[in-house]
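Have a think about this chain, tokens included, and walk me through the fold.
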Amino acid sequence: MAFPLTLVLLIVLLLSGTASATPVLTGVNEYLAPQNAARRALRLPPLRWDRKLEAYAQWWGNQRRYDCSMLHSNGPYGENIFWGAGDGWTPRQAVAGWLSERRFYDYSSNTCRAVDCGHYTQIIWRATMRVGCAKVTCFAGAGTLFICDYDPPGNFSGERPY
């Protein structure tokens, strides 16, 4: 049985599109899965990946790749930044670092004990719905930056995250 050329081309295009999309999804899930697990534990809606936020995080990371400074963009979004020495870091490790601040957050007083916990509270901020992240390898072996931007932003003074 002979297949029409258009059907064969369609199958090839579909298969090649699926294969090329897999690495992107894997990277996104490395950021999303642990953050959404933390939100799920608090019965909060999951974050959705946002390409606009991803592009913004990449843009800001590219500004910081020369000095590898953990400076915030002071843009319209909530923002978490992680720095690690060398280049072997993964998105899951960056997110785990932010989530480790959970132990310092005291819900009853709505404060952080001893150490800042704003990365954690941004992740679990109830009103935040979207996230986009980027990884940047800094020049001259200065390390690796991970940046996640959140919309709507959180961490408003005097407000509880959930």
Q: What stands out?
A: Helices lie at 5-41, 51-64, 91-99, 118-123.
